[in-house]
Structures are given as C-alpha cells and as structure tokens.
Write a structure and sequence with these properties.
Rossmann fold, 4 helices, 153 residues, five-stranded parallel β-sheet, single chain, 18% strand, alpha/beta, 5 strands
C-alpha cells in the first residue's frame, strides 16, 4: 500500500510518531510511505521552526529505530496537498485537525479522474493532562515530547 502524511514535524513528539506509526502499519512490510515536511509559506505564523534538514533527520532517525522494511520517502511540501493529488497513493493518515485537507485532496483527485484516497483518521495523542500534545506546548515548556507535564519552575 502507498500511504502519505504531511506536517511541519517540528519538535518530533509522540503525536507525530503516532501518525508515522499508523502510516507504516497501513503501508505494510513492502509498502511505501511518503512523508511531506512543510517549508516556505506553509510555515508562516509558526514560531521557532527548525530547518528542514533537522526535521527530516529526526524523522529518519525515528523510522530507522522502528526497523521497518517499508520504503519511506521524505520530501519538502510547499502547500497543503503536496504530491497527494497527482501521485499514486492509496491512503492518507490525518487527525481531526487535518481531515478537511484530505477531503479537499479527494475532491481534486476526483476532478482529474484519480481514485480517492482512503482517509485514515487517528485520534490526537494526549499529554498526561488530557490535552493534545503539540509542538507549541513543548516549545512553551508545558510538556515534553512524550506528553509529560513539566513543572513551571
């Protein structure tokens, strides 16, 4: 199976890892996972985003630790769709926050006579305080990458 995901992947955390894990699981042992990392105008309004190569390296290291035989391709994406409209993919993994983007991708795929992607929505990964893990919360030192609440000291 050919699966795609996309995001900023700044401060790689347990929520990002859950997204990657689901994509690897769906793709299967000899499948293909495309991971699009946002650059350029997609980063407007986001604070303290690490350079693309640092974000890519963190993902590569995580995938390597998984020891998966799934082929993983990591590239830049400059818009919300990346290559998901034109390329042959079977599924896209999203959260509730990005589901509407996947639905928009399927509308565009239909317009050009491509089969729709299976949209696989995973739940948000919650920190110990019951609030979703996010890079913003990590940057603000509310939680760590695993979702553990940090003392405000």
């Amino acid at each position: 199976m050919r699966v795609c995901i996309g995001g900023t992947f700044n401060l790689l955390h347990r929520g990002h890892k859950s997204l990657i894990n689901k994509a690897l699981e769906l793709a299967g042992e000899h499948g293909h996972v495309f991971i699009g990392i946002t650059i350029g105008k997609m980063l407007r309004g986001k604070k303290d985003v690490k350079p693309f190569l640092q974000r890519k390296k963190a993902i590569e290291q995580y995938v390597s630790e998984k020891q998966s035989s799934t082929h993983v391709e990591i590239k830049t994406i400059k818009d919300r769709h990346g290559p998901s409209i034109e390329r042959e993919f079977d599924a896209i993994v999203v959260t509730a926050e990005t589901r509407s983007t996947a639905e928009g991708i399927n509308k565009k795929r239909k317009q050009i006579a491509r089969k729709p992607l299976e949209i696989v929505e995973i739940p948000f990964v919650l920190a110990d305080d019951g609030v979703p893990i996010s890079s913003t919360r990590i940057r603000n030192k509310e939680i760590d990458e695993e979702g553990r609440v940090l003392d405000g000291d």
